Amino acid sequence: MLESVIRELLIKVVGGKWFKDDPESLVSYSYDATPLYQAMPDGVIFPESTQQVSDIVKICSKHRIPVITRGAGSNLCGGTIPLQGGLVVVMTRMNKLLEIDSDNLTATFQTGLNTKQFHLAVERTGLFYPPDPSSMIICTMGGNIALGAGGLRGLKYGTTKDYVLGLEAVLPDGSILRTGGKLVKDAAGYDLTRLLVGSGGTLAILTEATVKLIPKPSYRKAMVAVYDDLHAAARTVSNIIAHHIFPCTLEFMDQPTLQVVEDFAKIGLPVHAKAMLAIEQDGNADDVERDLKQLEEICLASGAVQLNIAKTPEEGAKVMEARRSALAALSRLRPTTILEDATVPRSKIADMVLEVQRIAQKYDVQICTFGHAGDGNLHPTAMTDARDPEEIHRVEQAFAEIFEVAIAMGGTITGEHGVGIVKAPYLEWKVGEAGIKMMKSIKDAIDPHQIMNPGKLFAETRKRIIYQDRTEAVGRTTTQDEEIQTP
Amino acid sequence: MLESVIRELLIKVVGGKWFKDDPESLVSYSYDATPLYQAMPDGVIFPESTQQVSDIVKICSKHRIPVITRGAGSNLCGGTIPLQGGLVVVMTRMNKLLEIDSDNLTATFQTGLNTKQFHLAVERTGLFYPPDPSSMIICTMGGNIALGAGGLRGLKYGTTKDYVLGLEAVLPDGSILRTGGKLVKDAAGYDLTRLLVGSGGTLAILTEATVKLIPKPSYRKAMVAVYDDLHAAARTVSNIIAHHIFPCTLEFMDQPTLQVVEDFAKIGLPVHAKAMLAIEQDGNADDVERDLKQLEEICLASGAVQLNIAKTPEEGAKVMEARRSALAALSRLRPTTILEDATVPRSKIADMVLEVQRIAQKYDVQICTFGHAGDGNLHPTAMTDARDPEEIHRVEQAFAEIFEVAIAMGGTITGEHGVGIVKAPYLEWKVGEAGIKMMKSIKDAIDPHQIMNPGKLFAETRKRIIYQDRTEAVGRTTTQDEEIQTP
After folding, report:
1. With 60 as the cut, is the pLDDT of residue B484 above it?
2. How far apart are CA B466 and CA B450, in angstroms?
3. Average pLDDT, chain B
4. Which residue of A has its CA nearest to B163?
5. Which residues form the FAD-binding PCMH-type domain (chains A, B) (predicted)?
6. B188 with A215: Cβ contact below 8 A
7. Between 3.30.70.2740, 3.40.30.10, 3.40.50.2300, 3.40.220.10, what CATH number should domain A335-444 receive?
């Protein structure tokens, strides 16, 4: 609980209605979409303006209260767990779309804006914002920016990182920073915009953003390629890139994923196939048709046993929606679903799929694999049970080996989900001692009192829920502290 | 001069042949392509490996010797002037192209590699590296990365910033950092790659880089649109963007620039026109022809009085080469040529061109304007004489007002040249007090002893050559220290 004097100060900023520290509210903001992690905050606050955010941070800075910024909490890296207690700052009231500038092809908004709502508003003007994380119906643009979210269209269009042109942010001392602008080129000093993108709430609270838009493609067409050999599906991906074709979407699902997604979405997926690729291209009609024709040839030459071309855009959209539902569908199978985000150079995708299978067998755990094959970004997903510590241990060993293999292939521990708590123990594997040291020195310089989302990126201890499924655990949690062994 | 014990240590690292501190060498590395600035280093060293760079930096760190990293020295921001003496580290021996990976569409090279040579090597494999600074015949990839270089193709393809996927860098303590990789997606911690891109040698020495390549466009076509009204040319740019066409190049030249470039290049430019746009599109032939047709219509509707479509790619290339020669051509006019880099949101390009004219008249200075109109990135260029302090003062006042106007329009003080010394006094105008403070805290954290390119970005004092043309000044410089007034 916060001291009553601090409570009063915070209530003075936002009004009594927008500060909460009743048990139900604290529990509600003690977890996010990440399995296995939970910790209770001391308060929850809902600012409505940048000035309020600044005032809140000044109070927290003075009194050394941890500040955990949160949008929808849909992240999968434990990025918004209030590990050390403190104040959860919920940005969802700051959800205004401030401007769509069709002369400069930019949009400016408050960061609590919902991603899907933003997409719809942009597309109504004939423009397009490509990054489309699978959680876009619930997530916020601020969360996307804070964690560098990707999505299904990354292969052709890149991720959130590639679209943020400018930010407004409240720094740990409460000062307000403005970076970038409606500029496609800016070489004025260190790239603070890009430093904040993906910083996961550890350096600042992002309050406003300006992003780049592009013209909305006039035409799109999807197809599905079915394989009875997993390796042939992966080989197809390499062959598509080798032919210099960049579909807007090039998604991979293995057999267990197909089965589960079909049970959930009921759109006629080939549930007995070993693997499926869902491919979509957009652009002008001629180019799309030309690419589709070439894609068909490549799929068949690479070993596809069946091709289904979507007859309508709606039919194509259904396949992509089904793919987006993979996590939701898989999480119905067993009590706990842990989705990972290992990424390899795209030429290694076939090897990586096979390695995931080998590792799952080795540790005797159930891992489905799907993901953004064209980017080399796979989401191996374990169906497990948090109540079984022995099994969870095997799952953790399996994921550690998956990260190790990804890095050995020149890959990374996270392509688009961020580090948060979950990947903190593995960060040094990717960035090395010099990288960790440099990141820590930046963190210490900008947030000397360590109030911004403490325990993330460089976590030394963590709280975990074990022995319990999360849905059961909420409200009556057994937590335990344990050292993270940084390998 | 360096102490003899330090000299010996450095010579032990690279061998006697590759360390120089004779007067001719010191003078040769006392300046770069930026007018008005010169300062003598204490030594010049030419490493051939990352390990040598690390050993050199360790010596300099221990003995607090400034380290100024330099490629070809073609920058225009005073970025490689050894303001506080110290050791100039010349990277041109580290010029190996290590790999072109056509499966992952990446290239890896040592940073001293020449940009044009790199382009040619990449294009021989059927791939393409778009960033094409006008200095590419002489500049190095490391310089491009250190300053976030742009070029003529920025509108469609972005700048150097958008292509760097990974770096190897030697940090101020001599440790070797590796960031990123052959990965199109990476969310593992702070984006150190992007922090180093554009950091201008103030945080680390960049030794190796991995960049993204794209397929080489199969077809390209150029055209020239001629205007007897400057505003109509600028309006054309806005109209092209409004039609959602992104030519790979969309360059603007005003009448004085046209005249001078034609005298230099002799390719038949319309020297009596008020302005000219040089436009090029690339891609597959059908798309290019369709865009060209639409571009013709837009140019005519926006007030072009004449259109010339290049009959061959070579004819188009000639126009672009002529445009690239603008700085060289203009510098023949008067003893000193100062080229600036103000950038505005692309919708403001017409207003900005007019403002530059107004400001030139106000201060009675000769300013030509050309640049990357499609990006909002103009290069107003003053023809002046460094021997006339009164005129130089007026030029400086004019540029200060140009920066002020650019920022008032939502623009920036540099689009692609970097801050270095020249723009340091104006940086706070763009990034604000919070931005300067944040950049300084990053600098202090990573380079606590301030050995990496001191006096850049945050310069408090500067040495200037005045009263002298640079070609005369070399070797017999009158320098004077003066306070920079940070506005």
Report:
1. no
2. 27
3. 91
4. A162
5. 37-216
6. no
7. 3.30.70.2740
